[in-house]
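Worked example 2:
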Amino acid sequence: MAVIDIPSFKVLGHIPTGWFPSKIQVSNDGNKLYISNAKGYGSGPNGGEAFEKGPEGSYVGSLMKGTLQIVDIPSVEVLKEYTQKGNR
């Protein structure tokens, strides 16, 4: 995930995430990032006959099995380390 300085549109570095990061939220205290990864464990079919449809009756042909990361907002030094590791 790129960290961008908005006024200059400059990429400052990258934070490693799981597969297909889909939503990011900063914690209320501004110290952590909550990153949801839509395909954290891949994708796959519903549970077959054992799968219970939702109250609206829908059936999804393929589910995304996601993950949630909780990451400290990195300092400049840590962001550099993350970026270097990601470039390997």
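Strands lie at 2-5, 10-14, 21-26, 32-37, 43-44, 63-64, 67-72. The chain has a mean pLDDT of 85.
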